[in-house]
Amino acid sequence: MTVNQISIFLENKPESLSQLTDVLAKNNVNMRALSLADTSDFGIARIITDDCSAAEEILKNNDYIVKTTGVIAIEIPDEAGSLNKILKLLAENGRNIEYMYGFTGRKTNSACMIIRCTNMPKTEEILEANGIHTISQEELKNI
Q1: Apex CA 101: angle with CA 107 and CA 88, to 5°?
Q2: In 3D, which of 49, 46, 40 has the Cα closest to residue 17?
Q3: Quick count: other Cβ atoms within 10 Å of Cβ 56?
Q4: Which of 62, 92, 104, 111 is deepest in the core (most CB within 10 A)?
Q5: Which residues contact 111 (CB under 8 A, 6 or more apart)?
Q6: Phi, psi of 9 (to 5 degrees)
Q7: Distances (CA, A) of 23 to 36, 55, 140
């Protein structure tokens, strides 16, 4: 089960990120997670929100170039070694991580990781077969 991630292309200049978050804040969009990558000319902000469709529409209406991508969100114990076990499992099964980022939620003793990797359906099967909880889009609202 994948969740929707919005990638937003930004100019690599002062205020670009704060202008983005200003648009989201003014429209009451709650970001659950954010990852930022850049090159010398542009940046890519990847965000997870409670309501991806609304956020995407708001961003497009404010002249942002956006792309929605399916990613896997997993819940892991917030303790040393938890992520390492999952990464070893995926590596042993030939999965290559393209990128990942994490966030914590309102729950205690857990963390969430966002993963984009090769062959997403197969990766989900491996995770679920090994008892690793994948988070649904609906569950994001309560984490």
Answers
A1: 95
A2: 46
A3: 19
A4: 111
A5: 75, 76, 77, 78, 82, 102, 103, 104
A6: -85, 130
A7: 17, 10, 21
